[in-house]
């Protein structure tokens, strides 16, 4: 089996059988991001544990197979990691996807995210692959205390709301 075919199967599997789909509580932040180019969208919730790890990521959204599968992969890669390490995974994925194919990506860091390496060669699809990853970064940086671990992010107009510790 060729690598490209294997990567396509990973993407298709995550699209058909998404992991962590369905919004859950509790959560520290909720963000809504939209790709204005194609209409893909995600509402993503992040819950950080008492020790500063990513305790949960849940989402709901709609869009193409690339955007929705990429969000599913994201959740698998970051849940359980310390915040700083999770953001490092996001940065590594972003670097690979934004490279137009010049950065291969490190499978040891981004796991199944490597399946999206070919997307980097198609600029029109890059935003699709990055949608959930940027939403995750935005949400983490908006949670009280998370800003201590990393530099704060600028506010984005795509963000609908943030709930700090509220569960109702």
TrEMBL record:
CDD domains named in the record: IscU_like
BP terms from Gene Ontology: iron-sulfur cluster assembly
Gene Ontology terms for molecular function: iron ion binding; iron-sulfur cluster binding
UniProt domain NIF system FeS cluster assembly NifU N-terminal: residue ranges: 6-128
Pfam entry (one): NifU_N
Domain of life: Bacteria
Record PANTHER family: IRON-SULFUR CLUSTER ASSEMBLY ENZYME NIFU HOMOLOG (PTHR10093)
The protein, known as: SUF system NifU family Fe-S cluster assembly protein
């Amino acid at each position: 089996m060729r690598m490209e075919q294997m990567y396509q199967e990973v993407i298709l599997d995550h699209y058909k059988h998404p992991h962590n789909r369905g919004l859950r509580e509790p959560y520290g932040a909720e963000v809504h991001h939209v790709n204005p180019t194609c209409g893909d969208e995600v509402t993503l919730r992040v819950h950080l544990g008492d020790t500063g790890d990513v305790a949960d990521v849940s989402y709901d959204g709609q869009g193409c197979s690339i955007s929705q599968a990429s969000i599913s992969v994201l959740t698998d890669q970051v849940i359980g990691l310390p915040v700083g390490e999770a953001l490092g995974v996001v940065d590594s994925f972003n670097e690979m996807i934004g490279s137009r194919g010049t950065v291969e990506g490190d499978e040891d860091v981004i796991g199944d995210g490597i399946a999206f390496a070919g997307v980097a060669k198609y600029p029109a699809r890059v935003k699709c692959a990055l949608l959930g990853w940027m939403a995750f970064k935005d949400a983490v940086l908006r949670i009280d205390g998370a800003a201590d671990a990393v530099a704060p992010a600028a506010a984005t107009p795509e963000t609908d709301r943030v709930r700090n510790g509220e569960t109702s």
